[in-house]
Amino acid sequence: MGALLLAAALLAAPPTVDPWLDGGLTLGAGAGWLTLAGLHPDLVATRCPCDRGDAPAWERFAVDADAGEAERLADLAAGVGLLVPGLVLAGTSPDDAWAADALVVYQSALLTGLLTQAAKTAFGRPYPYLLRDDATPGQVADGVNYASLWSGHTAVPMAAAVSLGVVVSHRHPDAAWRWWVWTLGPALALGAGALQVAAANHYPSDVLAGAAVGASVGWLNGWARGYW
Questions:
Q1: Which domain holds residue 81?
Q2: Is residue 161 part of a domain?
Q3: Does residue 39 have a pLDDT over 90?
Q4: What is the mean pLDDT of residues 183-198?
Q5: pLDDT tens across 42-101, in order?
Q6: Residue 179 in domain
Q7: Is the separation of the CB atoms in 139 and 170 below 8 Å?
Q8: At what angle do helices 152-171 and 70-92 cross, to 10 degrees?
Q9: How many folded domains does the chain comprise?
Q10: pLDDT > 80? residue 13
């Protein structure tokens, strides 16, 4: 009985967001992400020339992908995936809670960005286009081309989308439209990743890994703040 009462109390408790602590954590994650991204070319191990046979057979098709505008469309999709949550919250969150709700969503995105960049530097997986026969010595020697695992275009907007879903479900638990939030946001993040595959910038496994990481961070961050 005591455990049930405790669980009920936790579920009924309002979300807790400290503007100074969480704001500092969010800014720190963003600064760390940018710093590590700038250092990445000098930190990562450049291990090519590589052969297309080095890629798993089931995703080797990504090496030869060459959809003309795919990369630009991927940037657009990821940008929309990060902009829309703020607009949704502006129209649906209580006036006194919008800032806290938005902070949690974008905190999830920036934490995921930092984690993603750390993984890119640690794994140093070459982008698919680096496995082509026409990869130049300059590309092979440049560390910026070794950041395939995992897809930031997928992970970062996925974190924002899932955090948004958690927040909206807390604020509007009976609203039918919340399922559109849970569907369209993640679909947009996956779409951005698919476009990156079409541009030979990622393998499908990079997109799947990014989606899993982004969704996990988005859900856990919302849960830790008391929205779930």
A1: 67-228
A2: yes
A3: yes
A4: 98
A5: 999 999 999 999 999 999 999 999 898 999 999 999 999 999 999 999 999 999 899 999
A6: yes
A7: no
A8: 20
A9: 1
A10: no
pTM, full prediction: 0.92
- Give dist(CA 192, CA 188) in Å, integer: 6
In a domain, 53, yes or no: no
Q: What are the two backbone dihedrals, phi and then psi, of residue 84, each rounded to the nearest 5 degrees?
A: -60, -40
In a domain, 46, yes or no: no
Are the beta carbons of 185 and 85 closer than 8 angstroms? yes
**Whole-angstrom Cα distance, residue 166 to residue 17?**
14
Tokens for 210, please give them.
């990014």
The pair of structure tokens assigned to 228 is 């779930």
Express each pLDDT in 144-173 by its tens digit. Answer: 999 999 999 999 999 999 999 999 999 999
Residue 165: closest CA among 112, 213, 227, 110 = 227
One-character DSSP codes across 137-191: HHHHH-GGG---SS-HHHHHHHHHHHHHHHHHHHH-TT-TTHHHHHHHHHHHHHH
